[in-house]
Amino acid sequence: MPIVTITLQTGRPVSELSSIMDAIHSATVSAFKVPESSRNQRLIEIRPEFYFYPDGRSDAFMTIEIASFSGRSDEAKAALYQQISENLQRANAIDPKDVMILLHEPAYENWGINGQPATRFKPN
Fold first, then answer.
1. Alpha-carbon span 2 to 14, nearest angstrom
2. Of the given ranges (5-19, 34-48, 102-116), which has the lowest mean pLDDT?
3. Using one digit for the tens of pLDDT, what is the confidence trace for 39-88?
4. DSSP assignment of 12-75
5. How far apart are alpha carbons 112 and 36 in whole angstroms?
6. 21 and 29 in contact (C-beta within 8 Å)?
7. Which domain does 24 fall in, by range?
8. Cβ proximity of 8 and 43 under 8 Å
9. CATH for 60
10. Is 107 exposed, middle or buried (0-12, 13-18, 19+ CB in 10 A)?
């Protein structure tokens, strides 16, 4: 159950925002084998005058932060990054250079699920 935070500049239509969220969720399902029903996303829009991004990027630039249990292979992580970028490009014509992804992998003991430490749910 990754927690996904998408941060981008305000001004896009709701249909595009929904499509962006769908594209990212689809990639987590495919690359990380997350159940389709395990969707935990939030989208943060920032006014253009308060949203700064690296040179060479367009106003379509976004950051995607994903907090996930640790233990996935480098190959699964690379597949996630690639699938997110491809899905966004295909569905929304967002250039991969405008997508920055940061994966956080807090230890199981730093997660609380249903009032319990996630170590109780950790696979063997």
1. 23
2. 102-116
3. 999 999 999 999 999 999 999 999 999 999 888 999 999 999 999 999 99
4. --HHHHHHHHHHHHHHHHHHH---TT---EEEEEE-GGG----TT--TT-EEEEEE--S---HH
5. 21
6. no
7. 3-120
8. yes
9. 3.30.429.10
10. exposed
